[in-house]
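User: My collaborator and I are trying to settle a disagreement about how two of our proteins should look. Neither of us wants to argue from intuition anymore, so we agreed to look at predicted structures for both before our next call. Could you fold the first one, then the second, and keep them clearly separated?

Assistant: That sounds like a sensible way to settle it. I'll keep them separate. The first protein:
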Amino acid sequence: MDWLDDVKWDPQGLVPVIAQEKSTGDVLMFAWMDRAALRQTAELGRAVYFSRSRQKLWFKGEESGHVQQVHEIRMDCDNDVLLLKVTQLGHEPSIACHTGRHSCFFQVYENGGWRAAEPVLKDPSTIYK
């Protein structure tokens, strides 16, 4: 039996994935993987996701250079969510979000609205072509 068969894939053949920074415990981002993405992530030690908008594999950092080195892959108790313990490479301080921020979870709900609680570390227009 293939180790990938233990994962409970959704009807589209995907599983949700959380990327967490190994050194700080910060949750950096949420994404999706299909079987090929998970297999390549395990083989390469580098985060590979499945882009639902582009319908193809997405090697994190392929355009931005903000690569995620994967130290550990964990699965939750229901086998339907994965957690990657990563080191975010390519910029110091680390950038995981396409908005140029450290984390994709930068918005905080306060007083009936959302507020950006983390600064932009690098202008996205200089990251993406």
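The second protein, kept apart from the first:
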Amino acid sequence: MLKVCNLTTHYASSQALFGVDLEIGAGQVATLLGRNGMGKTTTINSIMGIVSPSSGSITFNNVELVGSASFKIANLGIGLVPEGRQIFPNLSLWENLVATASNHLESADPWTVDRVFELFPELGERRKSMGNLLSGGEQQMLAIGRALMTNPKLLILDEATEGLAPMVRQKIWAALNRIREQDISILIVDKNLTDLLKIADRNFIIERGRIVWAGSSAALRKDEDALHRYLGV
């Protein structure tokens, strides 16, 4: 579904990515792992067209994304849950959800506000609350719901559970398991390795702008050298 080949990205004269390769199949859950500052967010932003790659190829369902505007990439079926959530503070929770609602791929069973509330009942109870009055956990649930309202085929989460209480994190992981059952592929950046490896089919570790390890969750659990060298576990 998503294939990134030999991707390089610069910020002015500073190179951030050095030939990144990764691939996610339909219905798969993949992780992008690594310490802070290693290129995870830059990789996501390159996929979404938020930053322009210098070279390489990014294809989604055989459509080349490099050179496309972010809104066109989103319309192809990629939903982003950005780091920091970035919800609209001056809109209500309900308004945040309907503001992004679309069905460009003409799904026969599109995501609706009610479906999002079924996934996250806490949001239904706060539907009239303004975005800036929500807790961090509620904001993250809303950010996920907002992305689902675009009816994506691939959901990308940058720091899926960062800064959240353990109970809220577990609700997020449970929701992601339910989302994958809807045949939505997922790419996750997060630091909670134990929870990630429970749901991930494939894992990619990035170090200084390069993919240095790729494989299954079972293989990563056994690779103590990679865990220590690249993730500090």
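Some points you might bring to the call about the second protein. The radius of gyration is 17 Å. The first strand starts at residue 2 and ends at 11.
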